[in-house]
User: What shape does this take?
Amino acid sequence: MRRALLLLLPFFVFSCVHRQNSLTETEKERAVKIGNEAVMKLMKELKTNLGMALKEGGFPKAIDFCADKAQKLTQKVNRELVVVKVKRVSDRYRNPADRPDAFDLKVINYFRERLKEGKLPPYYIAESKEGGKRVVIYYKPIRVAPFCLNCHGDPKRMNPEVLRVLREKYPDDRALGYKPGDLRGVFKVVIPEKELEEG
Ligand code: HEC
Assistant: This one.
């Protein structure tokens, strides 16, 4: 009983926005599996291509690559996924295409609070509606690793060529000044509820 209450706690926090979570354990497990698969697919696509750009011309080349390709690769992954949709979202976004909606922002703040307490959960599942259809949203936190600071760190310590490209391509860039371990944003996977049915 106590465990059930603890599991429900995060849903009470958001219940003012979304109706209370009514998923069965099996549906939740499926949401986690489908969500993780979509996240892995996007992550692999971005990593492989970033790695190739880095090899070719270091960070200045890679920054050009990210700016040109990150959204296109995300769209490619979504075409392959067909019904499930995956994207990256951040409260301090670099590309306005990754701007959070009001609910995304609540989840990001929820993750940030838990991280402060040293209890960052591996994911968060919410229910919502999109285009009149019921969907389940799987959120996975994205944290900053030392490597990320080459393009998301303290501008004073960054390669000037990288900064130049960033300023040119993202005049309203909010994604600088992070430290290792910070919450950078979330992966957001939207799953139509009927995908969670068994069989
Ligand atoms: C070579 C430079 C570079 C490196 C290294 C890099 N990023 Fe980025 N990152 C970018 C660029 C450029 C964008 C904007 C892409 C776009 O226009 O869609 C971006 C966007 C993002 C976004 C999407 C949200 C937003 O702000 O638009 C997240 C999340 C993110 N990066 C996390 C990370 C993490 C975590 C790492 C380390 C594992 C990392 N990045 C390493 C350049 C980089």
Observations:
- The two ends are 30 Å apart (CA to CA).
- The first strand starts at residue 85 and ends at 89.
- DSSP finds five helices and four strands in the chain.
